[in-house]
Structure formats: C-alpha cells, structure tokens
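TA notes, week 10

Several of you asked for a full example with nothing omitted. So below is the full record: structure tokens for the whole chain, then the designed sequence directly under it. When grading your own attempts, check the secondary structure regions first.
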C-alpha cells in the first residue's frame, strides 16, 4: 500500500472532532510514508487532510475538475494537481492512483464516492480495501442501515463485512494494511448454484 484515497467533506462539520481526525489522518499517512490522493480542494476537511500531510512532509496528489479550479477551490500547495474534465473522470483517476480508500465524515459526495468504491469491490472490478473512519459516531446510523440491508437480504454478510470500519485512523490503517481480498462477486453464489445443476 503506497497511496490512500481520502474521501471527506468540503465542510469542516459541526464538531471539532472532525477537524482533529482529518489532521490526524493527513499526519499519520505522511509519517507512514503513504501518499494522499484526494479531491484537490483547499476547503473543509479536504483541505485539512492535505495541509496536515504536507506539513508532515508527505506527498499529496489532488485530482480536481477544471471548473472547480476556475472557482478557486483548488489547493495551491499540493505535490501534484491533476486537472480533469468531469466528476466521473476525477473519481476514476483517484481510484486508479490509489491502493486503498478511506471515507472520513462528509456529505452526499463523500458517501457516493465511498459506495462506488465499495460497489466496484463487490463486483470484483478492483481488489483494494475500502475503509470508513467513524469519527465521534458520525457513521453509526449508516452502519445500522447497512445491517438493516443485510437483514433484508439486499446485501450479503460478506459484502457488509468487506467495509473496514474503525474509530481511529491508527486502527483503520493497521486493518487496511492487513486486508486480504476474498472474491466478493455479486453473482458468485448464483454462478455456483447454476454450475451444480
């Protein structure tokens, strides 16, 4: 694992814990020699992660649509800033560059990016671990809903467990480093069942 893609809010959120976690994340990634891949912004938790990683001597790669650069949202101090034409291209480039994914607290965009990475893992389109940093219980309700989805048989226990969750960035990075991919193809059970008949 050399590069970690960070998804997080363009807002600082309402609790100081979120900012603290973002700075700890950037600092620890740099200290462990892991480059940050992120959305290239200079605002909210995004900017805090980047600033902390840079301050600790780490590499930070930002990927940002050109229209956002024009709105002066791009971070001017990152190691590398990659301009793309669309949000779809941005997400694909970030995924291609990263060896693992972590979602910190954030809004709809953060959820969309994390769930896309998790969906791609479920479909065996990549074999990279997807982590969720549950700061101050921010994601408790989401995790409860994932359990509900599992109970209603829309996702399997294996798919639910493929999301690596921890309350601390240290614990989460340790668990991501130990991650071993198991085939999670969405239709594997059906294929095995069909093969038996």
């Amino acid at each position: 694992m050399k590069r970690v893609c960070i998804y997080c809010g363009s807002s600082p959120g309402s609790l100081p814990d979120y900012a603290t976690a973002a700075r700890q994340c950037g600092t620890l990634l740099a200290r462990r020699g892991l480059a940050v891949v992120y959305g290239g912004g200079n605002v909210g938790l995004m900017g805090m992660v980047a600033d902390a990683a840079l301050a600790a001597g780490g590499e930070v790669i930002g990927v940002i649509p050109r229209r956002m650069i024009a709105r002066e949202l791009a971070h001017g101090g990152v190691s590398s800033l990659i301009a793309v034409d669309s949000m779809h291209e941005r997400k694909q480039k970030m995924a291609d560059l990263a060896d693992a994914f972590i979602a910190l607290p954030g809004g709809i965009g953060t959820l969309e990016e994390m769930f896309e990475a998790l969906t791609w893992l479920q479909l065996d389109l990549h074999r990279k671990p997807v982590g969720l940093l549950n700061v101050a219980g921010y994601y408790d309700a989401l995790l409860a809903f994932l359990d509900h989805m599992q109970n209603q048989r829309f996702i399997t226990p294996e798919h639910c467990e493929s999301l690596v969750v921890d309350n601390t960035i240290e614990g989460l990075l340790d668990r991501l480093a130990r991650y071993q991919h198991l085939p999670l193809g969405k239709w594997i059970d059906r294929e095995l069942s069909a093969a038996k008949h």
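The beta strands are 3-7, 35-38, 60-65, 80-84, 100-103, 130-133, 163-166. Use that as a sanity check on your answer.
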